[in-house]
């Protein structure tokens, strides 16, 4: 229910987001998550440069399925190159793994807290309803506006964040294809 608002406002301020299930290790095992995001980038590059069309139908299908799965779980954090400096969590009860990981890594947690939440787990609690869609939208909107203000101030001060693109090699393409073909979720469909 809150996923739509989270995605909408995170994209408005250009921030990474998770609006589906939080995968354990998204912060504590960030290196592995980055490798999975890299696989997504490799598959998209193969689609872009046409090399996916040179594969068999089965291979192309397996890569497409892998891409969809990676996008569903990691699409919102695909441009996140380092661990976050802070996280904003809607529904700390449901997203307790995210809060635990952030606490373990000493990453500040900002979250609206309802009466069913433990305020000791959150660095900066915001008293409020974290269930109703309108309040979730309000919290997300306010957070997005604050982030955009902060970004504008950083730009004014001349602080620009560099972005670097790493070239995708043929070896990476082969590794991703081999992995997709070896996954057991193939249902025996033929070309």
TrEMBL record:
The keyword NAD does not apply. InterPro entries: Ribosomal_uS2, Ribosomal_uS2_bac/mit/plastid, Ribosomal_uS2_CS, Ribosomal_uS2_flav_dom_sf. It holds the Pfam family Ribosomal_S2. GO terms for biological process: translation. GO terms for molecular function: structural constituent of ribosome. Keywords: Ribonucleoprotein, Ribosomal protein. Residues 178-191 have a biased composition (Acidic residues). One of its GO terms (cellular component) is cytosolic small ribosomal subunit. Belongs to the universal ribosomal protein uS2 family. This is Small ribosomal subunit protein uS2.
